[in-house]
Amino acid sequence: MKKTVRSICVLILILTLVGSFRAAPALALTTTFTVDTPTDAHDSNLVDATCYNGVDGCSLRAAIEQAFSVSSVSNPVTINFWSGIAGTLTLNLGTINWAASYVTLDGGANNMTISGSGLSAGQSIFTISGSHNNINALTIRNSPWDGVQMGDFSGVGEGNNNLIINSRLLGNGAAGVYVHGSASGGGQNNQVINNTIGLTDVHAAGCVAGEGNGGNGVYIDTNATNTSIGGNTIACSSYNGIWINGSGGAPTGTVINYNNIGVDSTGAMPNAGEGVRDQQGQNTAISDNTISGNGAAGVWLFNASGARLTNNRIGTNIAGTAAIPNGHDGVAITDGAANNYVGGTTAITNRNVISGNSYCGVRIRDGSTNNIVDYNLIGLDTSGMTGLPNAEAGVCIFNANNNSIGTSSSGVTQYISANTREGIYVQNSSNTFVGQTNKIGVAIDNTSPRGNGMQGVMLNGASNTSVFPTILSYNGGAGVAVVGDTATGNEVFPINIRGNGGLPIDLGNDGATPNGAHSPPGPNNWLAYPVITASSGNPVTITGSACANCNVIIYRAIGNPAAGGGGGTPIGQTSSNGSGLWSATLPAGVTRSQVSLVAQKPATVFTGDTSEMSPVYWLYLPIIITE
Hints:
15-stranded parallel sheet; 2 helices; mainly beta; 30% strand; Pectate Lyase C-like; Immunoglobulin-like
Protein backbone atom coordinates (compact mmCIF):
# COMPACT_ATOMS: atom_id res chain seq x y z
CA MET A 1 0.00 0.00 0.00
CA LYS A 2 2.80 2.44 0.89
CA LYS A 3 4.51 1.57 -2.40
CA THR A 4 1.32 2.35 -4.30
CA VAL A 5 0.93 5.69 -2.53
CA ARG A 6 4.56 6.52 -3.21
CA SER A 7 4.03 5.75 -6.95
CA ILE A 8 0.99 7.97 -7.09
CA CYS A 9 2.91 10.81 -5.45
CA VAL A 10 5.74 10.45 -7.94
CA LEU A 11 3.24 10.52 -10.83
CA ILE A 12 1.61 13.66 -9.42
CA LEU A 13 5.01 15.29 -9.11
CA ILE A 14 5.88 14.45 -12.75
CA LEU A 15 2.58 15.82 -14.02
CA THR A 16 3.05 18.95 -11.95
CA LEU A 17 6.50 19.52 -13.40
CA VAL A 18 5.36 18.87 -16.93
CA GLY A 19 2.22 20.95 -16.47
CA SER A 20 0.85 22.08 -19.74
CA PHE A 21 4.30 21.96 -21.36
CA ARG A 22 4.19 25.77 -21.49
CA ALA A 23 7.55 27.42 -22.07
CA ALA A 24 8.84 29.19 -18.98
CA PRO A 25 9.69 32.89 -19.28
CA ALA A 26 13.18 33.40 -20.62
CA LEU A 27 15.71 34.29 -17.94
CA ALA A 28 18.32 35.80 -20.22
CA LEU A 29 18.74 37.63 -23.51
CA THR A 30 17.54 35.39 -26.31
CA THR A 31 16.83 35.65 -30.02
CA THR A 32 13.68 33.53 -29.78
CA PHE A 33 10.40 34.29 -28.03
CA THR A 34 7.69 31.62 -28.00
CA VAL A 35 4.11 32.85 -27.70
CA ASP A 36 2.43 30.43 -25.28
CA THR A 37 -0.83 32.15 -24.33
CA PRO A 38 -3.77 33.51 -26.31
CA THR A 39 -4.23 36.32 -23.82
CA ASP A 40 -3.82 39.79 -25.35
CA ALA A 41 -1.73 41.64 -22.75
CA HIS A 42 1.23 44.03 -22.75
CA ASP A 43 4.69 42.98 -21.63
CA SER A 44 5.15 43.53 -17.90
CA ASN A 45 8.71 44.90 -18.18
CA LEU A 46 9.76 46.32 -21.54
CA VAL A 47 13.49 46.32 -20.84
CA ASP A 48 14.20 43.00 -19.14
CA ALA A 49 14.71 41.00 -22.34
CA THR A 50 12.04 38.58 -21.14
CA CYS A 51 8.70 38.06 -22.84
CA TYR A 52 6.14 37.92 -20.05
CA ASN A 53 2.76 39.61 -19.94
CA GLY A 54 2.49 39.65 -16.14
CA VAL A 55 -0.54 37.37 -16.31
CA ASP A 56 -0.04 33.95 -17.81
CA GLY A 57 2.97 33.83 -20.12
CA CYS A 58 4.39 35.25 -23.33
CA SER A 59 1.63 36.90 -25.35
CA LEU A 60 2.01 37.97 -28.98
CA ARG A 61 1.77 41.63 -28.02
CA ALA A 62 4.38 41.21 -25.27
CA ALA A 63 6.77 39.41 -27.63
CA ILE A 64 6.70 42.20 -30.20
CA GLU A 65 7.00 44.88 -27.53
CA GLN A 66 9.93 43.12 -25.86
CA ALA A 67 11.68 42.62 -29.21
CA PHE A 68 12.18 46.38 -29.42
CA SER A 69 14.76 46.24 -26.60
CA VAL A 70 16.45 43.07 -27.86
CA SER A 71 16.59 42.91 -31.64
CA SER A 72 19.31 44.32 -33.85
CA VAL A 73 21.13 43.47 -37.03
CA SER A 74 23.59 41.39 -34.98
CA ASN A 75 20.88 39.84 -32.80
CA PRO A 76 17.74 39.25 -34.87
CA VAL A 77 14.71 37.97 -33.01
CA THR A 78 12.35 35.15 -34.02
CA ILE A 79 8.87 34.98 -32.52
CA ASN A 80 7.13 31.63 -32.91
CA PHE A 81 4.14 29.87 -31.37
CA TRP A 82 3.90 27.02 -28.89
CA SER A 83 2.04 24.12 -30.48
CA GLY A 84 -0.45 24.00 -27.65
CA ILE A 85 -2.15 27.24 -28.67
CA ALA A 86 -2.74 26.57 -32.37
CA GLY A 87 -5.91 28.39 -33.41
CA THR A 88 -6.99 32.00 -33.09
CA LEU A 89 -5.48 34.83 -31.06
CA THR A 90 -7.95 37.70 -30.75
CA LEU A 91 -6.65 41.22 -30.11
CA ASN A 92 -8.65 43.59 -27.94
CA LEU A 93 -6.09 46.14 -26.68
CA GLY A 94 -5.67 48.04 -29.93
CA THR A 95 -3.19 47.95 -32.80
CA ILE A 96 0.10 46.18 -32.15
CA ASN A 97 2.68 48.87 -32.80
CA TRP A 98 5.70 47.07 -34.17
CA ALA A 99 8.64 49.48 -33.84
CA ALA A 100 11.35 46.83 -33.59
CA SER A 101 13.62 45.88 -36.49
CA TYR A 102 15.10 42.53 -37.51
CA VAL A 103 12.18 40.53 -36.14
CA THR A 104 10.58 37.48 -37.77
CA LEU A 105 7.07 36.51 -36.68
CA ASP A 106 6.69 32.93 -37.85
CA GLY A 107 3.43 31.03 -37.69
CA GLY A 108 5.20 27.85 -38.73
CA ALA A 109 2.89 24.86 -39.04
CA ASN A 110 0.53 26.10 -36.31
CA ASN A 111 -2.05 27.50 -38.72
CA MET A 112 -2.28 30.53 -36.44
CA THR A 113 -4.94 33.18 -36.98
CA ILE A 114 -4.52 36.67 -35.58
CA SER A 115 -7.97 38.22 -35.35
CA GLY A 116 -8.80 41.87 -34.92
CA SER A 117 -12.44 41.24 -34.09
CA GLY A 118 -11.90 42.71 -30.61
CA LEU A 119 -10.40 45.97 -31.85
CA SER A 120 -12.14 49.34 -32.07
CA ALA A 121 -13.05 51.22 -35.23
CA GLY A 122 -10.05 52.50 -37.17
CA GLN A 123 -7.58 50.11 -35.58
CA SER A 124 -5.35 47.74 -37.58
CA ILE A 125 -3.81 44.49 -36.40
CA PHE A 126 -0.13 45.40 -37.02
CA THR A 127 1.51 48.73 -37.74
CA ILE A 128 5.16 48.02 -38.61
CA SER A 129 7.34 51.11 -38.41
CA GLY A 130 10.61 49.23 -37.95
CA SER A 131 12.75 47.77 -40.73
CA HIS A 132 13.89 44.31 -41.87
CA ASN A 133 10.93 42.53 -40.30
CA ASN A 134 9.15 39.42 -41.60
CA ILE A 135 5.67 38.00 -41.16
CA ASN A 136 5.46 34.37 -42.30
CA ALA A 137 2.65 31.81 -42.42
CA LEU A 138 -0.10 33.62 -40.51
CA THR A 139 -3.76 34.32 -41.13
CA ILE A 140 -4.49 37.96 -40.35
CA ARG A 141 -8.16 38.80 -40.43
CA ASN A 142 -11.16 40.76 -39.23
CA SER A 143 -9.41 43.99 -38.35
CA PRO A 144 -11.74 47.01 -38.33
CA TRP A 145 -9.16 48.75 -40.54
CA ASP A 146 -6.05 47.38 -42.29
CA GLY A 147 -4.68 43.92 -41.69
CA VAL A 148 -1.02 45.01 -41.78
CA GLN A 149 0.38 48.51 -42.14
CA MET A 150 4.08 48.91 -42.87
CA GLY A 151 6.22 51.90 -43.72
CA ASP A 152 7.30 55.28 -42.45
CA PHE A 153 4.42 56.78 -40.46
CA SER A 154 6.52 59.36 -38.58
CA GLY A 155 8.65 60.74 -41.40
CA VAL A 156 11.91 59.53 -39.89
CA GLY A 157 13.17 57.37 -42.78
CA GLU A 158 12.18 54.01 -41.26
CA GLY A 159 9.77 51.27 -42.25
CA ASN A 160 12.00 49.73 -44.91
CA ASN A 161 12.72 46.19 -46.15
CA ASN A 162 9.80 44.49 -44.43
CA LEU A 163 8.26 41.28 -45.81
CA ILE A 164 4.87 39.59 -45.57
CA ILE A 165 5.07 36.07 -47.01
CA ASN A 166 3.01 32.85 -47.18
CA SER A 167 0.15 34.41 -45.24
CA ARG A 168 -3.58 35.05 -45.60
CA LEU A 169 -5.10 38.50 -45.15
CA LEU A 170 -8.86 38.26 -44.99
CA GLY A 171 -11.95 40.14 -44.02
CA ASN A 172 -10.22 43.31 -42.85
CA GLY A 173 -12.28 46.49 -42.90
CA ALA A 174 -9.92 48.45 -45.13
CA ALA A 175 -6.81 47.10 -46.91
CA GLY A 176 -5.31 43.69 -46.47
CA VAL A 177 -1.88 45.37 -46.60
CA TYR A 178 -1.11 49.11 -46.50
CA VAL A 179 2.36 50.41 -47.47
CA HIS A 180 3.22 54.02 -46.64
CA GLY A 181 6.32 56.02 -47.55
CA SER A 182 7.63 59.46 -46.74
CA ALA A 183 9.66 62.27 -48.21
CA SER A 184 12.38 61.32 -45.70
CA GLY A 185 13.17 58.11 -47.55
CA GLY A 186 11.12 55.73 -45.45
CA GLY A 187 8.77 53.08 -46.73
CA GLN A 188 11.27 51.59 -49.19
CA ASN A 189 11.77 48.05 -50.47
CA ASN A 190 8.83 46.48 -48.66
CA GLN A 191 7.52 43.19 -50.04
CA VAL A 192 4.21 41.32 -50.18
CA ILE A 193 5.05 37.85 -51.52
CA ASN A 194 3.14 34.56 -52.02
CA ASN A 195 0.08 35.46 -49.99
CA THR A 196 -3.63 34.94 -50.49
CA ILE A 197 -5.40 38.25 -49.96
CA GLY A 198 -9.18 38.20 -49.80
CA LEU A 199 -9.78 34.45 -49.77
CA THR A 200 -8.64 31.53 -47.64
CA ASP A 201 -7.39 29.30 -50.41
CA VAL A 202 -8.39 27.85 -53.76
CA HIS A 203 -12.06 26.87 -53.59
CA ALA A 204 -15.13 26.79 -55.79
CA ALA A 205 -15.46 29.80 -58.05
CA GLY A 206 -16.77 32.93 -56.41
CA CYS A 207 -15.99 35.06 -53.40
CA VAL A 208 -16.98 33.97 -49.91
CA ALA A 209 -18.72 36.35 -47.53
CA GLY A 210 -16.41 37.67 -44.85
CA GLU A 211 -13.16 36.85 -46.66
CA GLY A 212 -12.75 39.85 -48.95
CA ASN A 213 -11.09 42.95 -47.53
CA GLY A 214 -13.36 45.97 -47.23
CA GLY A 215 -11.02 48.34 -49.07
CA ASN A 216 -8.15 47.37 -51.36
CA GLY A 217 -6.24 44.13 -51.32
CA VAL A 218 -2.98 46.11 -51.22
CA TYR A 219 -2.85 49.90 -50.85
CA ILE A 220 0.37 51.86 -51.52
CA ASP A 221 0.66 55.62 -51.09
CA THR A 222 2.80 58.69 -50.33
CA ASN A 223 6.31 58.23 -51.67
CA ALA A 224 6.56 54.49 -51.00
CA THR A 225 9.49 53.32 -53.11
CA ASN A 226 10.32 49.98 -54.73
CA THR A 227 7.45 48.04 -53.20
CA SER A 228 7.32 44.46 -54.51
CA ILE A 229 4.01 42.62 -54.81
CA GLY A 230 4.66 39.15 -56.18
CA GLY A 231 3.17 35.69 -56.38
CA ASN A 232 -0.05 36.58 -54.56
CA THR A 233 -3.68 35.86 -55.23
CA ILE A 234 -5.49 39.15 -54.62
CA ALA A 235 -9.23 38.77 -54.80
CA CYS A 236 -12.67 39.74 -53.56
CA SER A 237 -11.75 43.23 -52.32
CA SER A 238 -14.58 45.73 -52.02
CA TYR A 239 -12.45 48.27 -53.88
CA ASN A 240 -9.34 47.56 -55.98
CA GLY A 241 -7.02 44.59 -55.97
CA ILE A 242 -4.02 46.96 -55.79
CA TRP A 243 -4.24 50.74 -55.49
CA ILE A 244 -1.12 52.86 -55.95
CA ASN A 245 -2.21 56.33 -54.84
CA GLY A 246 0.22 59.17 -55.49
CA SER A 247 -2.06 62.07 -54.62
CA GLY A 248 0.10 62.83 -51.56
CA GLY A 249 3.45 62.05 -53.20
CA ALA A 250 4.13 59.63 -56.03
CA PRO A 251 4.97 56.02 -55.12
CA THR A 252 7.90 55.06 -57.36
CA GLY A 253 9.23 51.82 -58.73
CA THR A 254 6.43 49.51 -57.58
CA VAL A 255 6.89 45.99 -58.99
CA ILE A 256 3.75 43.88 -59.47
CA ASN A 257 4.55 40.45 -60.89
CA TYR A 258 3.35 36.84 -60.95
CA ASN A 259 0.07 37.62 -59.20
CA ASN A 260 -3.47 36.46 -59.89
CA ILE A 261 -5.63 39.54 -59.41
CA GLY A 262 -9.40 39.03 -59.50
CA VAL A 263 -9.05 35.42 -60.57
CA ASP A 264 -7.68 32.09 -59.40
CA SER A 265 -7.44 28.62 -60.93
CA THR A 266 -11.19 28.05 -60.48
CA GLY A 267 -12.35 31.24 -62.20
CA ALA A 268 -13.37 34.79 -61.36
CA MET A 269 -12.73 36.08 -57.83
CA PRO A 270 -13.55 39.70 -58.57
CA ASN A 271 -12.22 42.76 -56.86
CA ALA A 272 -15.08 45.24 -57.10
CA GLY A 273 -12.97 48.02 -58.65
CA GLU A 274 -9.84 47.82 -60.77
CA GLY A 275 -7.45 44.92 -60.65
CA VAL A 276 -4.59 47.45 -60.47
CA ARG A 277 -5.21 51.17 -60.11
CA ASP A 278 -2.02 53.16 -60.61
CA GLN A 279 -2.99 56.73 -59.77
CA GLN A 280 -0.10 59.15 -60.20
CA GLY A 281 2.49 56.46 -59.57
CA GLN A 282 5.83 56.57 -61.35
CA ASN A 283 7.75 53.79 -63.10
CA THR A 284 5.48 50.96 -62.04
CA ALA A 285 6.40 47.55 -63.52
CA ILE A 286 3.42 45.21 -64.05
CA SER A 287 4.52 41.87 -65.50
CA ASP A 288 3.60 38.18 -65.68
CA ASN A 289 0.24 38.60 -63.92
CA THR A 290 -3.26 37.40 -64.67
CA ILE A 291 -5.58 40.37 -64.10
CA SER A 292 -9.12 39.33 -64.88
CA GLY A 293 -12.66 39.21 -63.57
CA ASN A 294 -12.47 42.56 -61.79
CA GLY A 295 -15.50 44.83 -61.60
CA ALA A 296 -13.92 47.75 -63.45
CA ALA A 297 -10.73 47.93 -65.57
CA GLY A 298 -8.04 45.31 -65.36
CA VAL A 299 -5.35 48.02 -65.09
CA TRP A 300 -6.08 51.73 -64.80
CA LEU A 301 -3.17 54.12 -65.32
CA PHE A 302 -4.67 57.35 -63.96
CA ASN A 303 -2.22 60.20 -64.57
CA ALA A 304 0.55 57.67 -64.05
CA SER A 305 3.90 57.94 -65.82
CA GLY A 306 6.59 55.51 -66.85
CA ALA A 307 4.57 52.34 -66.20
CA ARG A 308 5.49 49.19 -68.15
CA LEU A 309 3.03 46.35 -68.67
CA THR A 310 4.63 43.16 -70.02
CA ASN A 311 3.58 39.53 -70.40
CA ASN A 312 0.27 39.84 -68.57
CA ARG A 313 -3.03 38.11 -69.26
CA ILE A 314 -5.72 40.75 -68.88
CA GLY A 315 -9.31 39.56 -69.30
CA THR A 316 -8.59 35.84 -69.59
CA ASN A 317 -8.10 32.81 -67.40
CA ILE A 318 -4.65 32.01 -66.03
CA ALA A 319 -3.80 29.92 -69.10
CA GLY A 320 -4.91 32.70 -71.46
CA THR A 321 -7.28 30.36 -73.27
CA ALA A 322 -10.74 31.56 -72.18
CA ALA A 323 -12.31 34.89 -71.36
CA ILE A 324 -12.81 36.03 -67.75
CA PRO A 325 -13.79 39.63 -68.51
CA ASN A 326 -12.87 42.66 -66.52
CA GLY A 327 -16.00 44.76 -66.17
CA HIS A 328 -14.60 47.69 -68.14
CA ASP A 329 -11.46 48.05 -70.27
CA GLY A 330 -8.53 45.69 -70.12
CA VAL A 331 -6.11 48.61 -69.74
CA ALA A 332 -7.28 52.22 -69.28
CA ILE A 333 -4.74 55.04 -69.70
CA THR A 334 -6.41 58.30 -68.70
CA ASP A 335 -6.29 61.78 -67.20
CA GLY A 336 -2.94 62.89 -68.54
CA ALA A 337 -1.10 59.59 -68.11
CA ALA A 338 2.15 59.88 -70.07
CA ASN A 339 5.11 57.86 -71.28
CA ASN A 340 3.64 54.48 -70.37
CA TYR A 341 4.38 51.31 -72.31
CA VAL A 342 1.98 48.40 -72.80
CA GLY A 343 3.71 45.51 -74.56
CA GLY A 344 7.04 43.79 -74.92
CA THR A 345 10.35 44.10 -76.74
CA THR A 346 12.38 41.85 -78.99
CA ALA A 347 14.11 40.62 -75.84
CA ILE A 348 10.80 39.49 -74.33
CA THR A 349 9.27 36.54 -76.13
CA ASN A 350 5.80 36.70 -74.58
CA ARG A 351 3.31 39.45 -75.24
CA ASN A 352 0.50 40.80 -73.14
CA VAL A 353 -2.76 39.04 -73.96
CA ILE A 354 -5.45 41.72 -73.60
CA SER A 355 -8.65 39.98 -74.59
CA GLY A 356 -12.14 39.13 -73.47
CA ASN A 357 -12.80 42.43 -71.68
CA SER A 358 -16.22 44.08 -71.43
CA TYR A 359 -15.20 47.35 -73.10
CA CYS A 360 -12.02 48.16 -75.06
CA GLY A 361 -8.89 46.09 -74.85
CA VAL A 362 -6.85 49.28 -74.32
CA ARG A 363 -8.41 52.73 -73.87
CA ILE A 364 -6.37 55.98 -74.02
CA ARG A 365 -8.22 59.19 -73.27
CA ASP A 366 -8.42 62.64 -71.69
CA GLY A 367 -5.10 64.23 -72.47
CA SER A 368 -2.93 61.15 -72.04
CA THR A 369 0.12 61.45 -74.28
CA ASN A 370 3.27 59.71 -75.50
CA ASN A 371 2.00 56.26 -74.56
CA ILE A 372 3.01 53.21 -76.60
CA VAL A 373 0.96 50.05 -77.13
CA ASP A 374 3.01 47.44 -78.99
CA TYR A 375 3.81 43.73 -79.13
CA ASN A 376 0.47 42.55 -77.71
CA LEU A 377 -2.26 40.11 -78.61
CA ILE A 378 -5.44 42.17 -78.41
CA GLY A 379 -8.58 40.13 -79.04
CA LEU A 380 -6.82 36.75 -79.38
CA ASP A 381 -5.96 34.02 -76.91
CA THR A 382 -2.43 33.20 -75.86
CA SER A 383 -1.93 30.94 -78.87
CA GLY A 384 -2.72 33.84 -81.18
CA MET A 385 -5.00 31.62 -83.24
CA THR A 386 -8.34 31.76 -81.39
CA GLY A 387 -10.42 34.88 -80.98
CA LEU A 388 -11.27 36.14 -77.48
CA PRO A 389 -12.93 39.41 -78.46
CA ASN A 390 -12.99 42.54 -76.39
CA ALA A 391 -16.61 43.69 -76.50
CA GLU A 392 -15.73 47.06 -78.03
CA ALA A 393 -12.61 48.01 -80.02
CA GLY A 394 -9.23 46.45 -79.56
CA VAL A 395 -7.72 49.92 -78.92
CA CYS A 396 -9.78 53.09 -78.32
CA ILE A 397 -8.35 56.62 -78.25
CA PHE A 398 -10.47 59.62 -77.23
CA ASN A 399 -9.21 63.20 -76.92
CA ALA A 400 -5.60 62.14 -76.47
CA ASN A 401 -2.72 63.22 -78.74
CA ASN A 402 0.68 61.84 -79.67
CA ASN A 403 0.17 58.17 -78.83
CA SER A 404 1.53 55.16 -80.70
CA ILE A 405 -0.29 51.91 -81.42
CA GLY A 406 2.49 49.75 -82.77
CA THR A 407 5.86 51.12 -83.81
CA SER A 408 8.38 50.84 -86.63
CA SER A 409 10.54 48.36 -84.71
CA SER A 410 11.91 45.34 -86.51
CA GLY A 411 11.33 41.88 -85.07
CA VAL A 412 8.17 42.94 -83.25
CA THR A 413 4.57 42.19 -84.20
CA GLN A 414 1.28 43.19 -82.61
CA TYR A 415 -2.01 41.53 -83.48
CA ILE A 416 -5.29 43.39 -83.04
CA SER A 417 -7.90 40.96 -84.22
CA ALA A 418 -11.30 39.37 -83.55
CA ASN A 419 -12.65 42.27 -81.47
CA THR A 420 -16.39 42.89 -81.55
CA ARG A 421 -16.15 46.40 -82.96
CA GLU A 422 -13.14 48.14 -84.53
CA GLY A 423 -9.57 47.00 -84.36
CA ILE A 424 -8.49 50.60 -83.57
CA TYR A 425 -10.87 53.52 -82.96
CA VAL A 426 -9.47 57.06 -82.77
CA GLN A 427 -11.74 60.04 -82.02
CA ASN A 428 -10.91 63.75 -81.77
CA SER A 429 -7.21 63.05 -81.31
CA SER A 430 -4.17 64.09 -83.31
CA ASN A 431 -0.74 62.70 -84.16
CA THR A 432 -1.61 59.09 -83.47
CA PHE A 433 0.86 56.65 -84.99
CA VAL A 434 -0.41 53.23 -86.08
CA GLY A 435 2.86 51.53 -86.93
CA GLN A 436 4.17 48.77 -89.14
CA THR A 437 4.32 46.28 -86.28
CA ASN A 438 0.51 46.00 -86.38
CA LYS A 439 -1.29 43.13 -88.06
CA ILE A 440 -4.99 43.85 -87.86
CA GLY A 441 -7.61 41.21 -88.60
CA VAL A 442 -5.49 38.05 -88.82
CA ALA A 443 -4.17 35.32 -86.53
CA ILE A 444 -0.48 34.99 -85.80
CA ASP A 445 0.03 32.73 -88.81
CA ASN A 446 -0.63 35.95 -90.80
CA THR A 447 -3.14 34.22 -93.07
CA SER A 448 -6.08 32.91 -91.00
CA PRO A 449 -8.88 35.50 -90.95
CA ARG A 450 -9.66 36.83 -87.48
CA GLY A 451 -11.30 40.06 -88.52
CA ASN A 452 -12.59 42.71 -86.19
CA GLY A 453 -16.34 43.06 -86.42
CA MET A 454 -16.35 46.58 -87.86
CA GLN A 455 -13.55 48.68 -89.37
CA GLY A 456 -9.95 47.70 -89.02
CA VAL A 457 -9.17 51.35 -88.18
CA MET A 458 -11.77 54.09 -87.67
CA LEU A 459 -10.60 57.73 -87.61
CA ASN A 460 -13.51 59.82 -86.33
CA GLY A 461 -12.54 63.47 -86.24
CA ALA A 462 -8.92 62.37 -85.87
CA SER A 463 -6.20 64.44 -87.52
CA ASN A 464 -2.59 64.03 -88.60
CA THR A 465 -2.73 60.30 -88.00
CA SER A 466 -0.34 57.85 -89.66
CA VAL A 467 -1.78 54.40 -90.40
CA PHE A 468 0.98 52.06 -91.62
CA PRO A 469 -0.01 48.50 -90.61
CA THR A 470 1.74 45.57 -92.25
CA ILE A 471 -1.53 43.63 -92.57
CA LEU A 472 -5.04 45.11 -92.55
CA SER A 473 -7.43 42.41 -93.65
CA TYR A 474 -10.70 40.53 -93.12
CA ASN A 475 -12.41 43.15 -90.97
CA GLY A 476 -16.19 43.50 -91.12
CA GLY A 477 -16.19 47.09 -92.40
CA ALA A 478 -13.65 49.21 -94.24
CA GLY A 479 -9.97 48.59 -93.76
CA VAL A 480 -9.59 52.26 -92.76
CA ALA A 481 -12.55 54.64 -92.48
CA VAL A 482 -12.11 58.41 -92.10
CA VAL A 483 -15.11 60.49 -91.03
CA GLY A 484 -15.75 64.07 -89.94
CA ASP A 485 -14.88 67.54 -91.24
CA THR A 486 -11.98 67.79 -88.78
CA ALA A 487 -10.54 64.43 -89.81
CA THR A 488 -7.75 65.80 -92.01
CA GLY A 489 -4.07 65.21 -92.57
CA ASN A 490 -4.42 61.45 -92.10
CA GLU A 491 -1.87 59.38 -94.01
CA VAL A 492 -2.90 55.82 -94.78
CA PHE A 493 -0.32 53.44 -96.19
CA PRO A 494 -1.05 49.77 -95.41
CA ILE A 495 1.47 47.24 -96.68
CA ASN A 496 -1.03 44.46 -97.30
CA ILE A 497 -4.74 45.24 -97.36
CA ARG A 498 -7.42 42.87 -98.59
CA GLY A 499 -10.61 41.02 -97.81
CA ASN A 500 -12.31 43.68 -95.69
CA GLY A 501 -16.08 43.94 -95.80
CA GLY A 502 -15.87 47.56 -96.98
CA LEU A 503 -13.41 49.59 -99.03
CA PRO A 504 -9.71 49.37 -98.27
CA ILE A 505 -9.83 53.11 -97.52
CA ASP A 506 -13.19 54.83 -97.18
CA LEU A 507 -13.54 58.61 -96.83
CA GLY A 508 -16.92 59.18 -95.21
CA ASN A 509 -17.44 55.49 -94.45
CA ASP A 510 -20.11 55.45 -97.15
CA GLY A 511 -18.61 53.48 -100.02
CA ALA A 512 -16.63 54.61 -103.08
CA THR A 513 -16.52 58.39 -103.56
CA PRO A 514 -15.95 59.49 -107.19
CA ASN A 515 -13.54 62.35 -107.80
CA GLY A 516 -15.32 65.69 -107.59
CA ALA A 517 -18.33 64.35 -105.68
CA HIS A 518 -17.53 66.52 -102.63
CA SER A 519 -15.61 69.67 -101.79
CA PRO A 520 -13.70 70.43 -98.59
CA PRO A 521 -14.20 70.45 -95.65
CA GLY A 522 -14.58 66.77 -95.08
CA PRO A 523 -12.56 63.67 -94.25
CA ASN A 524 -9.05 64.15 -95.64
CA ASN A 525 -10.50 67.14 -97.54
CA TRP A 526 -12.12 64.65 -99.94
CA LEU A 527 -8.83 64.33 -101.74
CA ALA A 528 -9.28 62.96 -105.28
CA TYR A 529 -7.40 59.89 -106.39
CA PRO A 530 -4.97 60.26 -109.33
CA VAL A 531 -5.77 59.11 -112.84
CA ILE A 532 -3.55 57.47 -115.45
CA THR A 533 -3.57 59.28 -118.77
CA ALA A 534 -1.21 57.04 -120.76
CA SER A 535 0.92 53.88 -120.67
CA SER A 536 3.55 52.49 -123.02
CA GLY A 537 6.66 50.36 -123.39
CA ASN A 538 7.95 47.16 -121.86
CA PRO A 539 8.57 47.41 -118.93
CA VAL A 540 5.43 49.53 -118.81
CA THR A 541 5.72 53.25 -118.10
CA ILE A 542 2.56 54.95 -116.89
CA THR A 543 1.85 58.68 -116.71
CA GLY A 544 -0.99 60.63 -115.19
CA SER A 545 -2.24 63.54 -113.11
CA ALA A 546 -2.66 64.03 -109.39
CA CYS A 547 -2.51 66.76 -106.78
CA ALA A 548 0.51 69.04 -107.15
CA ASN A 549 3.74 67.96 -105.44
CA CYS A 550 2.27 64.72 -104.14
CA ASN A 551 3.69 61.25 -103.67
CA VAL A 552 2.05 58.61 -105.82
CA ILE A 553 2.34 55.09 -104.39
CA ILE A 554 1.63 52.27 -106.80
CA TYR A 555 -0.11 49.15 -105.51
CA ARG A 556 -0.46 45.78 -107.15
CA ALA A 557 -4.19 45.14 -107.07
CA ILE A 558 -6.05 42.48 -105.15
CA GLY A 559 -9.57 42.46 -106.55
CA ASN A 560 -11.14 45.87 -107.10
CA PRO A 561 -9.86 48.40 -104.58
CA ALA A 562 -12.92 50.59 -105.12
CA ALA A 563 -15.23 47.86 -103.88
CA GLY A 564 -15.61 45.76 -100.76
CA GLY A 565 -12.98 43.06 -100.42
CA GLY A 566 -10.48 44.77 -102.71
CA GLY A 567 -7.00 45.86 -101.79
CA GLY A 568 -3.38 45.50 -102.77
CA THR A 569 0.29 45.62 -101.89
CA PRO A 570 2.68 48.49 -102.77
CA ILE A 571 5.17 47.93 -105.59
CA GLY A 572 6.50 51.40 -106.31
CA GLN A 573 6.36 55.14 -105.69
CA THR A 574 6.81 58.38 -107.60
CA SER A 575 6.04 62.11 -107.15
CA SER A 576 4.00 64.61 -109.09
CA ASN A 577 5.36 68.01 -110.09
CA GLY A 578 3.92 71.45 -109.37
CA SER A 579 1.41 70.91 -112.15
CA GLY A 580 0.33 67.55 -110.77
CA LEU A 581 1.95 65.48 -113.55
CA TRP A 582 3.74 62.24 -112.75
CA SER A 583 5.18 59.13 -114.38
CA ALA A 584 6.48 55.76 -113.21
CA THR A 585 7.94 52.57 -114.63
CA LEU A 586 6.40 49.37 -113.35
CA PRO A 587 8.55 46.47 -112.11
CA ALA A 588 9.55 43.99 -114.78
CA GLY A 589 6.83 41.48 -115.52
CA VAL A 590 4.02 43.64 -114.09
CA THR A 591 1.47 44.65 -116.69
CA ARG A 592 -0.88 47.59 -116.64
CA SER A 593 -3.83 45.34 -115.82
CA GLN A 594 -2.08 44.01 -112.70
CA VAL A 595 -1.54 47.45 -111.19
CA SER A 596 -4.66 48.42 -109.37
CA LEU A 597 -4.01 51.41 -107.19
CA VAL A 598 -1.70 54.30 -106.36
CA ALA A 599 -1.41 56.44 -103.21
CA GLN A 600 -0.38 60.09 -103.02
CA LYS A 601 0.86 62.43 -100.31
CA PRO A 602 2.83 65.71 -100.33
CA ALA A 603 6.45 64.89 -100.98
CA THR A 604 7.68 67.18 -98.18
CA VAL A 605 5.17 66.35 -95.40
CA PHE A 606 5.21 63.30 -93.12
CA THR A 607 1.44 63.17 -92.65
CA GLY A 608 -1.12 64.39 -95.09
CA ASP A 609 -4.50 63.72 -96.64
CA THR A 610 -4.97 60.34 -98.30
CA SER A 611 -7.50 59.54 -100.99
CA GLU A 612 -9.52 56.42 -101.39
CA MET A 613 -8.05 53.74 -103.62
CA SER A 614 -9.14 54.31 -107.17
CA PRO A 615 -11.23 51.82 -109.11
CA VAL A 616 -9.80 49.46 -111.68
CA TYR A 617 -10.18 51.11 -115.09
CA TRP A 618 -9.29 49.68 -118.48
CA LEU A 619 -7.48 52.86 -119.58
CA TYR A 620 -5.73 53.87 -116.36
CA LEU A 621 -4.56 52.30 -113.13
CA PRO A 622 -6.26 52.53 -109.73
CA ILE A 623 -4.64 55.18 -107.59
CA ILE A 624 -4.58 56.46 -103.99
CA ILE A 625 -3.56 60.02 -103.17
CA THR A 626 -2.17 61.26 -99.88
CA GLU A 627 -1.82 64.95 -99.29
